[in-house]
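Course assignment 3, question 2. Fill in each field.
Student: A.L.
Task: Predict the tertiary structure for the chain below.
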Amino acid sequence: MENLLRPLIVVGGSVVLTLFIGWATDRLLSKADRRHSETPLWGLLRRGRIPYQLVLCAALLRGSFDKAEVLEGHRVGIGQTLTLVLIGSTAWLAIRIAAAVVETSYRRYARVHQDAARVRRVRTQVSLIMRVVSAVVGVVAVAAMLLTFPAFRAAGASLLASAGIIGIVAGVAAQSTLSNMFAGFQIAFGDMVRMGDTVVVDGEWGTVEEITLTFLTVRTWDERRITMPVSYFTSKPFENWSRGTPQMTGTVYWHLDHSAPLDAMREKLRDVLRECPAWDGRAYNLTVTDTTPNTMEVRALVTAKDADDVWTVRVTVREQMIRWLSEEHPYALPRVNTADAIVRSHRSNGSNGRVSHGIGPQRRAHESPRADR
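Answer field:
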C-alpha cells in the first residue's frame, strides 16, 4: 500500500501544487492588470503562465522524484528527462518575460510620441532585438541541455581545440547568411527602412510588413507578398516614400487638343480638389508640359498627406476631369484627322505654259493602283 501511495502523493502533489501556484499567480497578475491599466505589462506577463507552470512542475518533480521510489531502474533517464524539460521551459519563460517587457516599453513609447516615423523605427528595432534575444536564449538552452550528458562534457575539450578551424569553415560556408544578418542590424539601427514604410522595390509599390535578421517582406497594393534578402536594401537603391515626412506630390497627365480650355480646366481642378477629402490643401497646379503636332500634354500637380491619399487624389482628378471635358468641352479631347490625301498633278497646263513632269492623273491615296485597270 505504501509503494502505491508514495508515488501517487509525490507526483499528484507536485501537479496539484503546480496548478495552485499557477492559478494564484494568474489571479495576482489579473488583479494588477486591472489596477494598473496604464501599462500592459501585467496582462502581457499572463501569456507566460504555461511555461511558468512547466517550470514549477518540472522543478518539483525533479526534486521529489527520488522520494517516490518508483521505476528504480529508470531513475537516471527520468531525472535526465525532467532536467531537459526544466531547461527548455525556463528558456521559454525567459523569452515570454523579455517579450512582455519589450512590448510594454514599445507601447509606452508609441503612446507618448506622435511622430509616426520614429514609432515605426522603434518598432523595427524592437522586433529585431526580440529575435536576437530569442535566438541567444535558444542557443544557451540547447547548450545547457547538451552539457547535461556526460559524453558531451568529455568531448568538450577536444572540440574546443578545433573550434577555430570550424569557425572559419562555417564563416565561409555561411557568408551569405552572415551578410544578411549584419544587413539586418544595419537596417534596424541605421533607420534605412522601417516596418510600415511605403517603398518601391524593383518597380513594385508596397508597404514593409515584416523585417527579420535575414529577409524583409513587402506587401504590395494588390495584397501580394514580396520576400527579399535584407542585404538587397543595403547594396541597391530603392525608393522609400515614408522617409522623413510622409507628404507627397502627385502628377496627373492628359493628352488634349490644342484648343483645350486651360483656364476653365484650372478652375475645374480647384473645384474637384475642394470636394476631395484626400487632398491636404497644400498646393495644386495645372500647366502645359509638352506639345506634338496633334495634341498637347497637360500636367496637374496635387498634394496629399501620404502615399495612399495621393493615389486617391490622382485617380479622382483624372476621372472627373475627363468626364467634365467629354460633357462640357468635347472638342478638347484629342482627335485624329481622317481627310483623304490628294496627290498634286504636274502635267503641263496650256493656260500658263507650265511643263508637267507627272506620270499619271490625280489619285486618292486610299485607292488601289489596280482600280482603273
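Instructor remarks: The chain has eleven helices and eight strands. The first strand starts at residue 198 and ends at 201.
Grade: pending
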